[in-house]
Every structure is written in structure tokens, then in C-alpha cells.
Amino acid sequence: MALAYIATKEHSPQESKQAKAFIDSFLKRSLHNLQEEEIQRHTDYKAVVLEHKYNGKKTQKKKKSKGLSAKQKREMKLFHLKPEQQRSVFLPLNELWKQYIRDLCNGLSPESNPQMIQSKLLKADFHGAIVTVTKSKCPSYVGTTGIILQETKHVFRIVTQHDRLKVIPKRNSVFTVEIDGFITHVYGSKFQLKSSERSAKKFKLKGTIDL
Amino acid sequence: MYMHLEQCPRHLLVCEKSNFTNEKSRHGIHVQSHYFNYQVNMLIPECAVLPSELNALVNSFEKYYLVKNVPVYELVEQQFIDRFVKKGSVYALSYNTQIDQDNTVALLPTGTLILSVDKDTYEELGLEGKSSQYSHKAVMRYVITVDLKSLVPGTAKNKRVMWALKEKLLVKCDFLIMWNSPGDEDFSLSTHFEKYQCKEHAPAVSTKVLRDLPYPVIQSCDLRGNPEKSCDASEFMEWLGAVTSEIECNNEASNFLSTFCCPEPSSVMEKAYLCTVTGFLLPENICKLLEQLCHYFDEPKFAQWTSLTVHGFADSPVSWGSAEHGFHKGGENFYNFVVFKNRDYWLQMAVGSHDGCPP
Amino acid sequence: MACHERMEDDSGKYERIVHKNGSSYHYLKISLEFEEDTSIRLNSAQFKQLIISSLKQLFGEIGAALPFDVLQFEENTLSAVLRVYNRDLVKVWSALTLLGSYQSEMCAFRVQQVSPFLLALCGNSRT
């Protein structure tokens, strides 16, 4: 008994009382016709691994919360803007956007390189910008001006001077953005991306483009 | 060789026959609804001196103005509408603008303003219009119509039209303009367009007497012609074209240069009087001329018929009424009256490929 | 091709015929331009010969055999009126366009007006 105890103790320093009790009773039961000494002799100097315990790092798989699916978002009308919006509410947003663009371009001055500004604007966020539709295949969109409240893959939602929310498709329209005297034309058809995806996209230079 | 090489664009020729005394005769309507006339050719056979009444009419064609660099919004201005459009009939047509490449503007006497604009202008202008009837898959031309008489000042539509033409895109062109007023003239076009370079022009008249002219025999009752007795209307028209362009038409069949002949059966007239008026001509004047031409036969004459050809502007956005007109290859839109002794008349109306069927 | 519609009224005289592509000819008003001032003078026969040779260059013997008429020719301005069959219009026009020289002098044909009606040639508002 003592030996078995030792053996176990030698090989696994962290013994458990349960295991010791189990071994004792097991040997007694299976070798009941043998003397205690003989049992002792049988197990003498034999390494018997009685308990194996792996004590490595425990990997705890945490389930990441996925948030809401697109469908759920849609059902909850998360991106739904109410048709009545007040332009005055968004004027500070426009100021914020202007400041953001100025920071992005390291300050706008008449000497700034227009191409550099354009390439920055291409990747910039447009929420809060004041845009005007200058050209469109549909004439009734032409001349609409407002602050962009939301940009999706295919449309801009803007609030006009008359506090009306207008949805303007990007396709087949040319938008104009004015900031500190720099006027930029945005070809909507080439802009049909989510703003997050747009920042990563590489735009190719093209000689002439139709709407 | 290739079959498609042998095709050519369609053209239409409408021949009508009627009598001036016929109540249902529509000759007046046809003349009145062909708004923009460039040239009138009058051919009177067996005549060397124009009768005084006709001569007076020919020289009394109304004067027209050529105003340079006028922004189109001037025609939409309320003052212009009140002074001129509502008080008479204004004819205005942009000058030196080619309808197959430039923006063309026309103001019809009915008070309709027609802008025929190219695709880029249309997209930028922001006025609702229709795509041109004669465009292919990719529409390159649009037609915008604005009814000036129904335009109420202060309405959204009026503001939009003014905004588009004045602030959005300043469309400017030279205008041929004429005002047919009912009588009292408080204002004249020249004072109204004082700001712009405005010049008065009188139609140019040129006359010619042709001698020993072979001519095809025609009979008023037989529009289709008869191989033995008379020529048909289209043969006659070809001959008339040759006469007005002074093309020799007595060639032999073996001639190397040309085998063009006067259609058979033919005869020879001793002399013929050809009178041409060129300018920006009012349909009202042409109407009067046509009427007078009927009275030509009040006194006995040698001539069996007289003819009056009226050419429209090739770059006008309309041909007859408000039917759309395009240029394509020639932009021809003209009509020809053959007035017979017995007050019968033939009317031939011809258009090219970018035009609807004449009325 | 012609469609007829007859409207019998009281006098029984009104008649209307619509000819669609009624004319079998097309008429061209053209002029010949030399790049530099030259002493070259052409008479009408030489002028026609020049057009025939340009047709021959482009379409070979068949092109040279295309029938057409020089209705009018002015030696001073080197302008002319041609009459061609509808089916030959494209060929004649292309041959005129592609001609580049006469007696090793650079020249070009200008097609000023094309119409299926001879009458249309005298009233050209686009000049």
C-alpha cells in the first residue's frame, strides 16, 4: 500500500485521495488470495501511472456577439430617416465635415493642389457635406441642393433648404461639392459603393466619362 | 456587292390635287402651318414682266430682324410674352445653329417655345423634355417644349424655366425674329432688343427671265400622269428643280456628261419668269402671294399653269405644325404649288428621312 | 412604292398620293478644292473623268462602270451637281470622300448638299 502510494507519489506529485482509495480497494479485491507482502513485492519498483492529469492552458472559446443581421436592422428600421428633418439641426454637422476635410487635406488654401484634394475627397466620408446635383439624366433632380444625411451604396439622402428629405440615386448624376472655393464634381455612377468600401477602393483614372 | 451599301435613307413625297374653290381645300392650312420659310421660287411661264400686283407683293415681304447673342430666357421673360407673344404671332428661329450638332431654339406663332438640345445640355439644363424621335439606341438629342401662353408668372413652372435658362445654363444664340402684329404697335422688336445687336433685314429678291425652255406637259386632272398625254407630279418636280438650278435639260442619251432630259411628253415655252425671294419669310405673306397667283388667271394668259415653291429652313426643329424635324442628310422640307388655269392646284410636299409624313 | 388614298367629296377632285422613296435618284452638290492655288483647270469632261477614276480606285472596274450624270458644272468654282442612282449613292459618296489628288496635286471633294429631290438643291438654308 505504502509502496503504491510511493509509486504514485514519485510519478505524479499531485496525488489525489480519490485515486489512492481506488487503488487500495482494487488491489484488495483482485488479489484477495495473496498476502499483503506479496502484493507489495509485485508492485515493487514498478512505475504505475495511476492518474494522468493534463494541466495545460485552458482555451476558453468565447462566443463573439454578432450584433444584428442586415435583415434585423432593416426590420428595426435602424437606418430609416424620418421624412421631416430640420436643416438647421444639421448645419453644425456641415461645419464639422468642413473641419474634417480641412484636417484631412492639411488645411485648404488657394495654393493647395486640387488633385491632392480630389484624391483625399475620394476616400473621405461625405456625411455632412453640402452637395448640388449639376447634371442628371433625369432633369428634375438637377439643381437639388442639401446636406448629406446618409450615404448608401446607391443613394444619397439629403435634406434640402426647404427641410425636405430627398433621396437621390447616385447613378446617372453628377454632384458638385464646394469647400473653401474648391469645387469638385463627383460622378455618381462611379461612386456606387458604401462609404466604408470606397475608402479602400482604388479608383482608376479615365480620360472621359459619361454620366 | 454589299446589299446594305445600296440602301439609302427614306424620303417622302406627298402629292395632292384639289381646287382652290373647294371648301374643304386645305392649301391655306398647309401654308400657314409651315412656319419657317427660307426661300420662295415663283415660276410663271410665258411671261417676261411680272404683273404689278404680284410685283408689289413680292417686294412687300415683311422685314425681319437678326438679333445677335440673345440669351434664350429673354423669350420667356414676362415682358416679352405680354408685349409680343400674346398680342400677335412671333416667329423666332435660332440662326446658324445646326440641328444635328448645336442647340436649336424656335418660337412658334402659337406661343410654343421649342428647344432642341443635345444630350449634355439637356442633362445640365434640368428642364423636362422628350427624347428626339429620330435618335438611335443612345439618345443624343432631346426636345423641350414650353408653352409660353400658359406660363403664369410666379408659378413653380415659370420659376423653374427661368432658373434653368438664366442661372443654370445660359443658352445664347443668334435669332431670326419677326412679329406679325394685329395692328397697333406700342412696341417694336428693335426697341425691345435694344441691348443686343439687332439688325433689320429685308428679304432678297432676284428675278430672271428664261428663254426657250423645254417643259413637260401636265394636266391638272391627272396627278399620276399618262404615258402618252402628260407627266406625273414627281417628274414635273424634278424638271422644276432643274429649271430653278439652271440645269441644261436637253441632253442626248449618248452624252458622256449627262443624260438628263426633260420628261416626255414635252413642249417648249418661249420664255418664263423666275422670281426668288430669300430670307425669313412669313407664311402670311406666302398665303397672299398664292392668292394673287390664282388671280393671275383672271385675265386670259398663254400660260397653262404657274408654280410656287417654298423651301423651309433645313435646321428648323419643326417642319409642318409642331412635327419634329431633323437634318440627317439634307434636312429638306419644302412644298410646291402648281396653280392651274382652272383654279385646280397640285400641292407637292417633300421631306427627308428625319421628318414625319407631311399633313 | 406609292400608296393611294382617294377622298371623294362633292367636287370629287381631291386626291392624295404618298410616294415613299419615290425618287430613284439622289442629287449631290459638290465642289472640288485644291490645297494650294494651282493653275490646273478642269473642263466638265475631265471633271467627270476624275470622279470615274476615283470610283475605279475604290471599287475597281465595277465602280468605274457606275452610271451617273454631271447635271451642272461650273469651271470657275469647280462645283457641280451630280445625279446618281439611290443604290450607288454610298459608293459615289465614299469614292468622292477618299479621293486625295489630281495630277499629283492635293485636292478634296466637298459634298455640300445631298437630297433625293433636285428641287431641294436650290433652296439650301445651310450655307
Automatic annotation (TrEMBL), chain A:
GO biological-process terms attached to the record: rRNA processing; tRNA 5'-leader removal
GO molecular function: ribonuclease P RNA binding
Signal peptide (from-to): none
Entry annotated with the keyword Repressor: no
Localization annotation: Nucleus, Nucleolus
Pfam families per UniProt: RNase_P-MRP_p29
Gene3D superfamilies registered for this protein in UniProt: Ribonuclease P/MRP, subunit p29
Tree of life domain: Eukaryota
Chief subcellular location: nucleus
GO cellular component labels: nucleolus; ribonuclease MRP complex; ribonuclease P complex
Keywords from the UniProt entry: Nucleus, Phosphoprotein, tRNA processing
Coiled-coil spans in chain: none
Family statement: Belongs to the eukaryotic/archaeal RNase P protein component 1 family.
Subunit structure: Component of nuclear RNase P and RNase MRP ribonucleoproteins. RNase P consists of a catalytic RNA moiety and 10 different protein chains; POP1, POP4, POP5, POP7, RPP14, RPP21, RPP25, RPP30, RPP38 and RPP40. Within the RNase P complex, POP1, POP7 and RPP25 form the 'finger' subcomplex, POP5, RPP14, RPP40 and homodimeric RPP30 form the 'palm' subcomplex, and RPP21, POP4 and RPP38 form the 'wrist' subcomplex. All subunits of the RNase P complex interact with the catalytic RNA. Several subunits of RNase P are also part of the RNase MRP complex.
Function: Component of ribonuclease P, a ribonucleoprotein complex that generates mature tRNA molecules by cleaving their 5'-ends.
The protein, known as: Ribonuclease P protein subunit p29
Originating organism: Erpetoichthys calabaricus (Rope fish)
UniProtKB/TrEMBL annotation, chain B:
Pfam name, any one: Ribonuc_P_40
Gene Ontology cellular-component terms listed: multimeric ribonuclease P complex; ribonuclease MRP complex
Superkingdom, natural source: Eukaryota
GO MF annotations, alphabetized: ribonuclease MRP activity; ribonuclease P activity
InterPro entries the record matches: RNase_P_Rpp40
A biological process from GO: tRNA 5'-leader removal
Protein name, as recorded: Ribonuclease P/MRP subunit p40
Species name: Erpetoichthys calabaricus
Lineage, top ranks: Eukaryota, Metazoa, Chordata, Craniata, Vertebrata
GN (gene name): RPP40
From TrEMBL, chain C:
Ribonucleases P/MRP subunit Pop8-like domain segment(s): 25-97
Entries under SUPFAM superfamilies matching the protein: Rnp2-like
GO cellular component: multimeric ribonuclease P complex; nucleolus
Pfam families per UniProt: Pop8
Keyword list, A-Z: tRNA processing
Keyword Secreted: no
InterPro entries: Pop8-like_dom, Rnp2-like_sf
GO BP term, example: tRNA 5'-leader removal
MF term (GO), any: ribonuclease P RNA binding
Cell cycle found in the keyword field: no
Protein name: Ribonuclease P/MRP 14 subunit
Organism: Erpetoichthys calabaricus (Rope fish)
